[in-house]
Input
Amino acid sequence: MKRRRLASCLVMGCALSGAVFPHAQTTTTVQFDREIVHVLDDHCVMCHAEKGLAFPLVTYEQTYASRWKIRQDALNRHMAPWAAVSGYGGFSNDNGLTQREIDFLVSWAESFGPRNNGEVNAGIATGPSPGKPVQAHFDINRWRLGDPDLRLALPPNTVTPRQADEVKRVTLDPRLTGDRWLRGLEYRPADGRVVHAVSVAIQETGEWLGSWTPWHPYFELPTGLAYRLPAGSHLLVEIHSYGSSEPVTERASLGLYFATQPSRRKVANMALNASWAAGSPRKLLGSRRLEEDASILALQPEIHPGIQSIEVSARKPDGTTQILLFARKIPLEWPTPYVLREPISLPKGTQLSVIEHYADDASVPVAGFPVTFSAYSSGAAGESVEELHIATPLRGRADAAQVSSLGSRDEVRLQRRQALDPGHPGAREIGDLARKAVTEIFSDRP
Ligand code: HEC
Output
């Protein structure tokens, strides 16, 4: 039925294109089966799938029907969601479209969406088709990093229909009897409809270990490096979900990948706290001097409603400045770290800075929020390096997996705030709020 309707309107389009609008003809060599399907595979179909986070862009017909919106979203860089401006540092989890890919989408849409070579058939079957039609493809049931060394099942988590940004936390006990070296982790949802972002930290210290987004479902340290996971540590998994049209019960897994050798360098988090610039109420500034040679692996900024841009830079002792990240139009619904394609080595004495601009009407708390750097120092693995932990050590039981619902981004933010500065005037009130907000959804726990 749907297909018939599409077909008839396309036929009309064809007739018009010849007779009335001579420009609406195929003037491009870009074809769905060749260029477009690759753009979808690389940037879109991890979300735009049957039973995915958004309407499917899998088949030719689906993509054809949305081509004007696709054109628009590609041109204004609304889709795929990715805020780092290209040209300021390279990221291995960059999901932005290249200029060439934007050009493909735009000229394909404007040229009446050709499907394959020499056959401008606008998706209507014109005879027996040779082989299967070309489609975008995404496999949710696959570990990108290979079979994990340890697979932890998350307790089932039911996401309320249409709920925006439902943040839940789960504590997992990997039952480590000795210290282990963690070289990577991967989160795997069982249902692709609800989860937007996941981050994993060591519960006891708050150290961030890595994150998941639909387009980059794992975090992996460069060869030879690993985080130390002390015996008895628990993992704190924070999950951001958006409700679907019906309740969805998500049964996810977390895969851990261990190194057999200790890390050749110490890997740790470093936080850079920003606070309001004097006399400039919408600008957050923070800076920090490196006390050791260090290499930066990833940046994990905390973002809040109203954020307009963030810039992280490094001023080296020789006076040169390197921009590590410049991001704008930051979509709050897709929290992501920025994982550097190559570690950036910075000498002792480098000044790391962050500048964040907020909109005039943004309701941002009084003090700023950190950018966390995952970095390794150039010292040997055993040497001590200054370490800073930033996230909230979780309340809750460490002996069993549990899901606690924090309801909204605000409460999580307030909790973080409290953890960073327990002396903050709002801290007590925040504590009460957080306690109220934590509802454990497990009744069958021991
Ligand atoms: C990380 C997930 C994700 C990725 C990757 C992604 N999208 Fe989306 N997209 C969404 C969500 C969620 C929506 C809004 C949901 C809805 O409207 O059903 C959306 C909406 C859209 C819309 C509709 C906008 C409107 O005005 O209604 C278009 C068109 C679109 N995406 C195209 C794309 C294209 C093309 C790509 C790849 C280049 C892409 N998206 C990549 C998640 C994603």
